[in-house]
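Long-time lurker. I teach an intro course on protein structure, and each term I like to show students one example going from raw sequence to a predicted 3D structure in token notation. This year I'd like something fresh instead of my usual example. Would anyone be willing to generate the tokens for the chain below so I can use it in lecture? Attribution to the forum is fine with me.
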Amino acid sequence: MADEYQYSEYDKREARRESKYGHSYKWIALSNTTLGVMMATIDSSILIISLPAIFNGLGINPLTPGNITLLLWLLLGYIIMSSTVVITIGRLSDMFGRVRLYNLGFAIFAIGSTLLYVASYAFKGTTAVEMFIILRLVQGLGGGFLFANSTAIITDAFPKNQRGTAMGINQISAIMGSLLGLIIGGVLATIDWHLIFLISVPVGIIGAIWSYVALHEIAEIRKDQKIDIFGNITFALGLTVILLSMTYGLLPYGNANTGWHNPYVVGGMALGVSLIIAFIIIELKSKDPMFNLGLFKIKEFSSGIVSLFLSGIARGGLQFMLIIWLQGIWLPLHGVNFINTPLQAGIDMTPLLAGFLLFGPTSGYLSDRYGARRLKIIGMTINVFGFLMLAILPVNFAYADFAVIIFLLGAGQGMFAAPNTISIMNSVPPQNRGATSGIQGTLTNASFMFSMVVFFTILIFGLGATLPKVLYNGLIMQNVPNQTAATVSKLPPTSALFAALLGYNPMQTLLSNATSSIPKANLTVITGTKFFPSLISNSFKSGMRIVMFVAAAMAAIVAIISALRKETKIKEAGAQ
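-- Reply from a regular --
Happy to contribute to a lecture. Here you go:
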């Protein structure tokens, strides 16, 4: 059929590759890169669940105004670092060798992980958190090397008619890692929070040795090209400034619930956008650009990249909403103690992981046989309906209904991820695969940040409009003195959201100095599992519905883009 891939026999280059490295090499490359990507994504999410245990172990309250910045940096520094370096690393990989830089990434990741574990015993208090932030940046740098090269190494190692299957497995490992991080973090936090930093040490060391011994450089190395110094600098600085400005935009400023009118945030966004514009101008005029912007003239590439970014925003928003929904509202309303909600939330989200695990590899295999277009359309259409079903689901839902919906969302994302990735990688010349893999990594991580900022902002505005009055009235009804109730009701919505995200009961902290003036029976109710979740549930529901509608709209746009793109025959772009 016209829109199905048509395959031919291996071309001479592929035959020579298999003859030189053996039939099993491609599976060695897949297993090693899968391990690397999974470990990198586990570490990107493992702290979301385990931060309360870490801060408690250090004797720090992360929700106090002075510590929220540390919390944000510890939570997001890894992602910011890996987002800003992957395109540069991808370009360098095309010039100096993808396997060589991938090996370097595993080594950096192993060193950062080891130093993090040592620092967890060597430092205390805020000094420890500051050291963790620095070393998480080192980890993020290593993760950037892994992200930038894994997809390109797989594309180099596998023949055209098996790349979908291989990419499906690799994509599964990336998404599974981010979900496994939530569960692993919760489990280890209940045993010993130091283990959270230890778990990646042996994997990093073994992976680094294994990749150095087993992987081979297949791609042609373009040593004749020069490094685009100004392009690299303007892009890295521009993206870093934008991501940092967006992060600080979530924090209260003056009397406002967010910092979007903070001069430093506004100025930072303007500076970041200006640097990105300068980067584009530099790239268009550069003889050896950091990234070949001419690739965007390839319709399969440009549509795939846009789809990747939009679907990433929708997926990131879903993950944050589910964590807040479960940890901050649903589980406490069902009697689960706040300290236990992080682990239980990870367990309750397993249907999402199951859907992805079941349909991710399957979609990769089917895309090899029948093409990617239909699978991408079906996957995103399923996501549209899944987001809409979540939007109308009651806040205090029946778990069976919730499990079915998130399973469908996982299935839809699994059906889309691998086919879209292989469409992008197949559309570019082999000499550009490293940079292409890099831009995919950048947009995947950046979409995660964008989703957090956009959807958190929506929730903050929703909570800011109703939370003070609702919280004040609720405290007065529980015989809390008027002055104390007025003070507590000024809880910033950002703190309320982070409390829900981290599994904290903010009432215990906010009333810690006023317990003597509150009747014991009322204090028990206020600090129990149902008081705070009941107060924020209505405000959360209205904001959550907006978030789900926005996510559904993004998924619909991706489905339309996929439907409008006609597939072409697979051919090795740029092959001789």
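Some talking points for your students: Residues 1-10, 569-576 have pLDDT under 50 and may be disordered. The radius of gyration is 24 Å.
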